[in-house]
Amino acid sequence: HQMHRLINNMSDAGRSDLLTPSGIHDWRRVIQEIFEKISTQLEGTNVRFTYEGLAQPVYGLVNVGQMERAILNIVSNAVKFMPEGGTIHADLTRKNNMLQLSIQDTGCGIAENVLGNVFTRYQRQPGIEDSRYGIGLGMVLIRAAATAHGGTVLLEQTKERTTLTMTISIRERTEALVRSL
Q1: 98, exposed or middle or buried, with CB in 10 Å at 0-12, 13-18, 19+?
Q2: What is the pLDDT of residues 131-168, one digit of tens each?
Q3: SS3 call for 2
Q4: Which one of 51, 151, 163, 166 is most buried, counting C-beta atoms within 10 A?
Q5: Residue 59 region, left (φ>0) first, then alpha (ψ -120 to 50), else beta?
């Protein structure tokens, strides 16, 4: 499974066709379904996972597969570096025409010497012998998903927690789509 995921990440990191939102979907439902899958996968682990979503539907352009991969990368990173009994909390909020997806975890965070380059392709924490470390594409794919959906990624880290916040533009049409890579 890990090898398959790595190969897909390497393949998709350079593909621009994956950057286009593919259809109108209910963002609330898309994100909720992704977190339901994650919650199921975390059953039986010592990780406490919570999610708070939106009360009302929000329709807009979404590349569902790309968003699922990005969110799975975020949560996977959190779980890999989570101490026994750690927590992950995700919430989706709306402010005007923007969604904000925040995922907080109580893991050990990202090493200070890597933090400034975390969105650089193939940048990874030292420790190649440690199987928790990937090949340095997860954060690149997360940022690509946010950018493709008209948003950004903010990474905040304290001693107690790491928070990754992805903003997403609620777009209903592709006519005004401008993309810079």
Answers
A1: middle
A2: 545 555 678 888 989 998 999 999 898 888 999 999 99
A3: helix
A4: 166
A5: beta
